[in-house]
Amino acid sequence: xxxxxxxxxGPAGAGKSTIGALAAERLGYLYLxxxxxxxxxxxxxxxxxxxxxxxxxxxxxxxxVKVAIGPPTVRDGRAYTVLLDGDDVTWTIRGADVDRSVSxxxxxxxxxxxxxxxxxxxxxxxxxxxVGRDIGTVVLPRxxxxxxxxxxxxxxxxxxxxxxxxxxxxxxxQELLSEILRRDRLDSERAVAPLRAADDAIxxxxxxxxxxxxxxxxxxILTAV
Length: 225
Ligand code: DC
Fold this sequence. Notes:
Bound molecules: 2'-deoxycytidine-5'-monophosphate
Radius of gyration: 16 Å
CATH topology: Rossmann fold
CATH class: Alpha Beta
Structural class: alpha/beta
Number of helices: 9
Shape: globular
Number of strands: 8
Oligomer: single chain
């Protein structure tokens, strides 16, 4: 049987995680947020005092630590649980320090190789919605459906603000916008697997759409024959 795989890519804050998780739930597919894997490596580096520019030590780290993403183990609004060497880091990887360093960590080719290998292994089982930056272009170039979810930077900063506020994390909107623009630049200008829509991806613009509306748009594409 051909594995049924769905790739959703797009810039930070475009709603990929929310829409990806809901689409996976609706379809009864496994949901894998690959950004959480890069975030876990970035956190491991911070904890060990490894510089985000030290490619050699980051590569070694990515091969040594164990990142596991599985079903929620706590009912606190999480879509999945992330374990870093057995330690629950689901919320820690969403902190401002990880936000700042993760794009640099994700630039390292050897870190990406280690993550991509795991991601492909998971996709082999099929029935997976995989969300990230390079899923349709690099990780699963033969995914059955590819979506590139995007929105303007100001809309994404607004959503990020709302999401963080809901968790009691209040940061200036301007800071969030600068952070998004910085990550867009780092993610799309890097040499290895830069952020871009695959040639055969369907682009979904979500400016002004509610979560429900964006979800319906995505589901219509995913379920079209
Ligand atoms: O989606 P996110 O914000 O949690 O992703 C965190 C970082 O990881 C982001 O800066 C880009 C990087 N990333 C990547 O390079 N490739 C992926 N497939 C997923 C995320």
